[in-house]
Amino acid sequence: MLASRMDGPQRRRTKPQRNEPPRPQTRPERLPASGSSRLINAGVFLKYVLQPRVLQDRPGASIATEFGPLLLGINGDPGLGFSWAGSISQPWDWGTVHFGVEANLTRDQRGELFLDAIIEGPFKRLIRPVAEALL
Predict the structure, then answer these.
(1) Model's pTM, two decimal places?
(2) What is the mean pLDDT of the chain?
(3) Neighbours of 77 (CB within 10 A)
(4) Is the CB of residue 81 less than 8 Å from the CB of residue 106?
(5) What distance in Å separates the CA atoms of residue 43 and residue 64, rounded to the nearest whole number?
(6) In a domain, 63, yes or no
(7) Strand ranges (DSSP E) for 8-94?
(8) Is 124 within a domain?
């Protein structure tokens, strides 16, 4: 709705715009300075291929590792931790299998262990099925 004033007596005349639904009134909310931004799950990791093979187009199993600190968060994730992971990848004619293990010392100083396996279809196909199991 549009309102206009006329000269003389204080009288308001309104003129409807188009048949539009009313727009919601919004006003910005202020967030507290301490919680306005967060950085969580931060870490710095070094990745290294111990035995370059199938993943580098060579025959045989590839072995790789990754490790590094779990860093303090900003407005979250108090404490420091550490993570280490290793993986082995082996190709066959019918596809490739990747086995992995990961051990963590969490930011609250608890131990974690994860095992996983990924099975991929053959590289020769344009579209390959993939399945993953995590323990």
Answers:
(1) 0.62
(2) 79
(3) 20
(4) yes
(5) 18
(6) yes
(7) 12-15, 46-51, 62-70, 81-92
(8) yes
